[in-house]
Structure formats: structure tokens, C-alpha cells
């Protein structure tokens, strides 16, 4: 809901909206075969460090998918993921930053299909939790 308001406001004012998600280099600890969004919080095999690393990977995948969707709409809103320290992000979107510089992230964090899958699953969980049909 907030995103739509940002897109509207940016279009009306001509001022670019910016979204910054804080992540961590620990995202690179997650291996492709162990990234299971639906099992992340399973109490039977919960591991705090693993859950944290997966949540940071999820932050980056979310940023990349949202950036793709915003660009497809020609929205004047950028979204980036940063390892602590906020860099200048004007007209930059869908990137990962470490130590205030654009940086490389893991190949899994760059996987567009994983980003789309995570985005859809997250959206479904949120709408289910809110008791609303998906838009």
C-alpha cells in the first residue's frame, strides 16, 4: 500500500522516491540447495544464524524483484539493499552496497527466478495473514 503511494507521489511531484533495505554480507553464506523460504521458520530445524543469513538474502532478492517491477512501470522510485552504511543511490536501483560502494552479491542473490518466487510467496503470506484476497 505504501509503495503505491510512493509511486503516485513521485509521479505527481517529479521527485524520485528511494527505498533502502538494510542487509548484510552474511547473505552469501546461504547456498542454493539450502535456501527454502517456506521452511525458514520451521521450529523443528530452526537455527538463528541460518535464519538471519537467509533473511538477508531474502532482503536482496526482494530488492531485485521490486526494482524490476518498478522499472517495468517506469516508476520514479528506486530500491536498493545496503550492508550498513548508506551510499548515494540517486537513479540507481536493484543494487547491493557494502561499505558505501556498489558491490557484488552472491550468485543466488542475483537469481531473478528466486527473487520472483520469493516475492510471490511473501505476498501470498502477507495477504493470507491480513485475511484479504491477493490483488
Automatic annotation (TrEMBL):
Keyword flag Nucleotide-binding: no
Keywords in alphabetical order: Oxidoreductase
Signal sequence annotation: none
SUPFAM superfamilies: NAD(P)-binding Rossmann-fold domains
Source organism superkingdom: Eukaryota
Classification via Gene3D superfamilies: NAD(P)-binding Rossmann-like Domain
GO molecular function terms listed in the Swiss-Prot or TrEMBL record: oxidoreductase activity
TM region(s), chain numbering: none
Keyword Magnesium in record: no
Family of this protein: Belongs to the short-chain dehydrogenases/reductases (SDR) family.
Protein name, as recorded: Short-chain dehydrogenase tic 32
Organism whose genome encodes this protein: Quercus suber (Cork oak)
Gene coding for it: TIC32_12
